[in-house]
Amino acid sequence: MGILDENKHLEDLDKRYIWHPFTQMKDWLDEKPIIISEGRDCFIKEIYGRWYLDGVSSMWVNIHGHRKKEIDDAIKEQIDKISHSTMLGLSNVPAIKLAEKLVKIIQGSSKTKPSNPQTLEPLNPLLLSKVFYSDNGSTSVEVALKMAFQYWIHRRVDGKVTFLSLNNAYHGDTLGAVSVGGIDTFHKVFSPLLFRTYDAPSPYCYRCELELSYPDCKTACLERMGDALRENSSEIAAVIIEPIVQAAGGMIVSPPGYLKGVRDLCTKYNVLMIADEVATGFGRTGRMFACEHEDVVPDIICLSKGITGGYLPLAATITTDEIYNVFLGKFKELKTFFHGHSYTGNPLASAAALACLDIFEKEETLKNLQPKIEILENWLKEISDVPHVGDVRNKGLMAGIELVKDKNTKKPYPLEEKIGWKVAYHARENGVFIRPLGNVVVIMPPLSISIENLQQLLKVIKDAIIAVM
Question: H or E element: which one contains 19?
Answer without folding.
Answer: none
